[in-house]
């Protein structure tokens, strides 16, 4: 996830948990080369379009930032924190051919994860507008619980990346309260609750857009990875 309008997001040159705006700027220009999938397309329902427009409106005063989404995970991680992932991406370009960021793994619009995320930096909060398509079916007519888990993981993950850079999910606990109808639009609302050293604790609620139905609630723990060690080194040393 890339944080647009990075000037003013963290303050010029200011560090927040190891991420600097300078690296955000570099990351901004670098990631702009990739296709952004978090933009309206013909599969978006009127509800999705209305909600998207409402959030775009709230971006105007800088309170919220629209977060683009790409098909490569490396493009979602900011600046310096992304260096190792980026070199991993370049070094393994051949082997990586065909790999895709999981929620961006389908080219046909509307059949899978249709979503757009918005970040509220001062509240350390990430909201995702999610419209599950027919290929995410679990029980007939409803989204598979794994797809709900995926969108929750990505939303809280984006929030954790905002405060801690390169992170991995250590724990994700979900209570499913009401099934999500395919083609409906739900709001995935996550926030950082606490940071303890390398540990980022978050919570998340998935609700219908009228707020009347709670579909799921979750807590998550993300661990900030050691920035001096590449992801590849970490994986091979385990
Ligand atoms: C675009 C962006 C969206 C991305 C969203 C998608 C994210 C993902 O899908 S990530 C994939 C799923 N996750 C994984 O595969 C992670 C697998 N696990 C690991 O690699 C490692 O266990 C990892 C990196 C999480 C932590 O390992 P490591 O860095 O060695 O940390 P470690 O020293 O064990 O633990 C650090 C602290 O966290 C705590 N901790 C670690 N794991 C857990 C856990 N599961 N539950 C509770 N506490 C934990 C430890 O107790 C320790 O606490 P303290 O500092 O108080 O002693």
From TrEMBL:
Enzyme class, UniProt record, top EC level:
hydrolase
Biological-process GO terms, alphabetical: fatty acid metabolic process; negative regulation of phosphatidylinositol 3-kinase/protein kinase B signal transduction; regulation of mitochondrial membrane permeability involved in apoptotic process
The main location is membrane
Domain (Thioesterase) spans: 141-213
Q: Which Gene3D superfamilies is this protein grouped with?
A: Hotdog Thioesterase
Q: Which UniProt keywords apply?
A: Apoptosis, Cell membrane, Cell projection, Cytoplasm, Fatty acid metabolism, Hydrolase, Lipid metabolism, Membrane, Mitochondrion, Mitochondrion inner membrane, Transit peptide
> What top-level branch of life does the organism fall under?
Eukaryota
Where in or outside the cell? Cell projection, Ruffle membrane; Cytoplasm; Mitochondrion inner membrane; Mitochondrion intermembrane space
One MF term in GO for this entry?
Answer: long-chain fatty acyl-CoA hydrolase activity
Query: What membrane topology was assigned to this protein in its record?
Result: Peripheral membrane protein
Pfam families per UniProt: 4HBT (PF03061)
Which transformation does this protein catalyse, written as a reaction?
A: (5Z,8Z,11Z,14Z)-eicosatetraenoyl-CoA + H2O = (5Z,8Z,11Z,14Z)-eicosatetraenoate + CoA + H(+); hexadecanoyl-CoA + H2O = hexadecanoate + CoA + H(+); tetradecanoyl-CoA + H2O = tetradecanoate + CoA + H(+); (9Z)-octadecenoyl-CoA + H2O = (9Z)-octadecenoate + CoA + H(+)
- Record bears the keyword Lyase: no
The family this protein is said to belong to: Belongs to the THEM4/THEM5 thioesterase family.
Q: What's this protein's name? A: Acyl-coenzyme A thioesterase THEM4
